[in-house]
Amino acid sequence: MLPLKNIVLPTDFSEPTLAATRYAVMLAKRFGATLHLLHVIEDPLTLAPIFESVPLPPRLSFETYAQDRLENWIPDADRDDLKLELHWLHGHPFSRIIEFASDHRMDLIVMGTHGRSLISQAILGSVAEKVVRHATCPVLTVRNGPS
Predict the structure, then answer these.
(1) 1, exposed or middle or buried, with CB in 10 Å at 0-12, 13-18, 19+?
(2) Is the CB of residue 14 less than 8 Å from the CB of residue 114?
(3) ∠ at Cα 32 (99, 65), nearest 5°?
(4) How far apart are CA 32 and CA 37, in angstroms?
(5) List of domains in the chain
(6) How confident is the model at residue 98 (pLDDT cuts 50, 70, 90)?
(7) More confident residue, 56 or 67
């Protein structure tokens, strides 16, 4: 069996990440691993050119929001016996997740999948798919659905 000491759970604070969170918490507790909760803050200008003409909140606002969401992502009831570290980074989610996992020697990445249609998958791609293809450690993808 693979020893799991460090597990990273990238989150975009979406519904699919909630399903992955349940798995990551369970695995971290079972193996006594540290769960690293990671959020990547994307530059809003890359997401919507409309922001070029609208004033953006300062960078600190995005960081404060991320920190607050990370601190409250896992319910208190699930924090018993859980070693948890919170991280946020700026950049493109795919590349920053891969870099983080490699730089911090993660044993496992646990991610939710959004279940996009084949057409949107082909056009937009998938962060989870790219992570699976390029990660240097195992990746567990969790599809959102009834539990």
Answers:
(1) exposed
(2) yes
(3) 50
(4) 15
(5) 6-143 (3.40.50.620)
(6) very high
(7) 67
pTM, entire model: 0.84
Contacts of 46 (CB under 8 A, 6+ apart): 92
pLDDT at 16: 83
Structure tokens given for 51 = 């922001």
The tokens for 61 are 């606002």
